[in-house]
Amino acid sequence: MKEIPLFPVPLVLFPGGKLPLQIFEARYLDMVKKCLREQTGFGIVMITEGDQLLGSPDEQLPEISHCGTYCLIVDFDQAPNGMLSIVIEGERKFVIRDQYEQPDRLMMANVEFLPVEQEVDVPEEREHLSGLLESLMAHEAVQRLRLDCDLGKAVEVGARLTELLPCPNHFKQRMLEMKDPLMRLGEIDKLVERIQKSSEPLGRSS
């Protein structure tokens, strides 16, 4: 097991995904500076209940999912006002075995890293999902992330589509926890069909 700091957010990030973050709370500024200094990372976990920001020092920390993604900082910039802009990239999925908080309210956890998923090709009957992902990655906001994705690999296509499609976070979390990349593509295919039937535009979720 490995002890890591946690960064709870109202979204889901997969290994290989990138996410820009604005860091301004003291506990997270300290965390990021330590990660940069020691060349370590932190865990992104989805909030299931509660708020990301603490309104008061004694406010209860949010409830979080038991499975998340260990991330490394791949870019950063500090504004004159002290706020840090960072870009993180997902590395490995993990499950939380034990969690606690530091005196500064930073959430910490002992985690177990999950095995890397078996890499398999996108099956012929799901190749339209690769085409959909290619069109989503052409959007300007997505291009700014400079994602590197092999459109022929089921793990990568499933992960990037889950991140980019407009669907509930509980669905995204279920996809993250799924271990079979082909089963994940099947579930995403069903989601795409539902979205298309409801005539909702396919774009990046907020």
Strand order of the largest sheet: 1-3-5-6-7
Low-pLDDT ranges: none
Q: What is the number of independent domains?
A: 2
Q: In the CATH scheme, what's the topology name of the largest domain?
A: Archaeosine Trna-guanine Transglycosylase, Chain: A, domain 4
Main sheet summary? 5 strands, mixed, barrel
What is the arithmetic mean of pLDDT? 91
Q: Architecture of the largest domain in CATH?
A: Roll
How many individual helices?
6
- The strand count comes to 7
Q: Ends: how far apart?
A: 33 Å
β-sheet strand percentage? 25-35%
Order of helices and strands: EEHEEEEEHHHHH
Shape call:
globular
The helix/strand class is: alpha+beta
The CATH superfamily of the largest domain turns out to be LON domain-like
Q: Helix fraction? A: 25-40%
CATH hierarchy class name of the largest domain:
Mainly Beta
Radius of gyration: 17 Å
Describe the structure.
A hairpin with a 5-residue loop joins strand 5 and strand 6. The chain starts with a strand and ends in a 9-residue tail after the last helix. It has helices spanning 26-38, 127-136, 140-143, 154-164, 169-177, 181-197; strands at 2-9, 18-23, 42-49, 63-64, 67-78, 84-101, 107-113. The radius of gyration is 17 Å and the shape is globular. It is of the alpha+beta class and 206 residues long. Helix 4 (154-164) packs antiparallel against helix 5 (169-177) and helix 4 (154-164) packs parallel to helix 6 (181-197). Strands 1-3-5-6-7 form a 5-stranded mixed barrel.
